[in-house]
Automatic annotation (TrEMBL):
Catalyzed reaction equations: UDP-alpha-D-glucuronate = UDP-alpha-D-galacturonate
Listed InterPro entries: Epimerase_deHydtase, NAD(P)-bd_dom_sf
The organism's taxonomic lineage, starting at the top: Eukaryota, Viridiplantae, Streptophyta, Embryophyta, Tracheophyta
Homology family: Belongs to the NAD(P)-dependent epimerase/dehydratase family.
Species in which this protein is naturally found: Oldenlandia corymbosa var. corymbosa
Name recorded for this polypeptide: UDP-glucuronate 4-epimerase
Length: 446
């Protein structure tokens, strides 16, 4: 097995006089034209200008017909903002400094979704072991942006500069790749969540499909091409009933739009690997949890509601079978992400041209021990010393699947991936962070 770079725990320490009017000679051609030419020049051109303005007001171009908050308008605004923010040596110097490795053999890594849950932990771990890290995140409002800003403060404390921007902004990505010769891209940016797809489906296409293609376009045209590691999801297994889920199992029956976009991402990765020689590794995450997690996850909002004395909903399948998840602690997932970077082979293309077969891999990163949601609640009650007000309901048809269970044999053999944190130990760390962050309003350190 390829020798892995040392992985340090990311939880240690730190944590922008008109000229004078000159008359002309009257043309001898005809009287009518002569009378017309007697009108001063500036008056004539003023009339022409006025007509032009009126024309554009009443006959706007197709682009201007876009709704005030349409994607086309938003992209134009974003590109305009970036064109202003990317000017100046101060911004460039911050990117360069952040992307410069401190270790002799360190990588230069672009981490997309850097202020996300997994992105923050992975970025800090990379920086602490000596890699250069430049973050990219659009700070969207899918969940509390205050939490994202707090994570960003931790990244800044670690010497990591996060560029605020969208992965669909090609001009921004080109600028970053011009400044830093990234050896690796850790692509974690995505529109997350299963149920939200029923409210805003286009956001999943924008981020998980369009954004991924835009990023790969930049990567395949780079010279040299970077290695790409990206976050897929256990949701691609969809309606599979065979457990545990193996990388060889079918993934053509997604139960949600989110899952469908992640599956689309895997097929897109295959095509860019095959055509352009990009080295690409996909990681199927299984219900990642821990400190600084996502508020839309069950363990997080259960904790909030239990402490507030609010009722929590526990869903079950037919025959009163409760939903179960293969909860995977964040530190274990971080180790898997770094191992995927360390064992990846170089891309074989250059400037958009493939020169040989390139590595293409996919791995499950789970904990191999599915836990019923009822058991999750019991552990939280114990740690919070508070009894939960539970309401059991039938599983809604909203895209959620009844259970997840990872087979991690391949990741263990090829990445040396060995999850070591059980749910109770991981939740104990999460609860400690949660009380410190939300209870006292004092931000926890790493």
């Amino acid at each position: 097995m390829t020798q892995l770079k040392p992985i340090l725990s990311h939880l240690d320490s730190i944590p922008s006089t008109p000229g004078k009017f000159k008359s002309e000679k009257v043309s001898p051609f005809n009287t009518t034209f002569n009378r017309f030419r007697l009108v001063p020049r500036f008056t004539l051109w003023s009339l022409v200008s006025l007509l032009a303005v009126l024309f554009f007001l009443f006959f706007p171009s197709p682009a201007n017909n876009a709704a005030p908050d349409s994607p086309a308008i938003r992209i134009k605004r974003r590109n305009l903002q970036n064109s202003v923010s990317l000017v100046g040596s101060k911004w460039e110097n911050r990117v360069l400094a952040s992307g410069r490795p401190s270790a002799k053999e360190g990588f230069s890594v672009l981490v997309t979704g850097a202020v996300g849950f997994v992105g923050t932990h992975v970025s800090v771990a990379l920086k602490k072991r000596g890699d250069g890290v430049v973050g990219l995140d659009n700070f969207n409002s899918y969940y509390d942006t205050g939490l994202k800003k707090a994570r960003n403060a931790l990244l800044e404390k670690s010497g990591i500069f996060v560029v605020e921007g969208d992965i669909n902004d090609a001009a921004l990505l080109e600028k970053l790749f011009d400044l830093v010769k990234f050896t690796h891209v850790m692509h974690l940016a995505a529109q997350a969540g299963v149920r939200y797809a029923m409210k805003n489906p286009l956001s999943y296409i924008h981020s998980n499909v369009d954004g991924f293609v835009n990023l790969l376009e930049i990567c395949k045209s780079s010279n040299p091409q970077p290695i790409v590691v990206w976050a897929s999801s256990s949701s691609v297994y969809g309606l599979n009933s065979k457990v545990p889920f193996s990388e060889k199992d079918r993934t053509d029956r997604p139960a949600s739009l989110y899952a469908a976009t992640k599956k689309a991402g895997e097929e897109i990765a295959h095509s860019y690997n095959h055509i352009y020689g990009l080295s690409i590794t996909g990681l199927r995450f299984f219900t990642v949890y821990g400190p600084w997690g996502r508020p839309d996850m069950a363990y997080y909002f259960f904790t909030k509601d239990i402490l507030k004395g609010k009722e929590i909903k526990i869903y079950e399948e037919v025959d009163h079978v409760t939903v179960a998840r293969d909860f995977t602690y964040i530190d274990d997932v971080v180790k898997g992400c770094l191992a995927a970077l360390d064992t990846a082979q170089k891309s074989t293309g250059s400037g958009g041209r493939k020169k040989g077969a390139a590595q293409l891999r996919i791995y499950n990163l789970g904990n191999t021990t599915p836990v019923p949601i009822g058991r999750l609640v019991s552990i939280l009650e114990k740690l919070l010393k508070t009894k939960a007000k539970k309401k059991v309901l039938p599983m809604p048809r909203n895209g959620d699947v009844p259970f997840t269970h990872a087979n991690i044999t391949l990741a263990r053999e090829e990445l040396g991936y060995k999850p070591s944190t059980d749910l109770e130990a991981g939740l104990k760390k999460f609860v400690k962070w949660y009380v410190g962050y939300h209870g006292s309003k004092k931000k926890s350190s790493w």
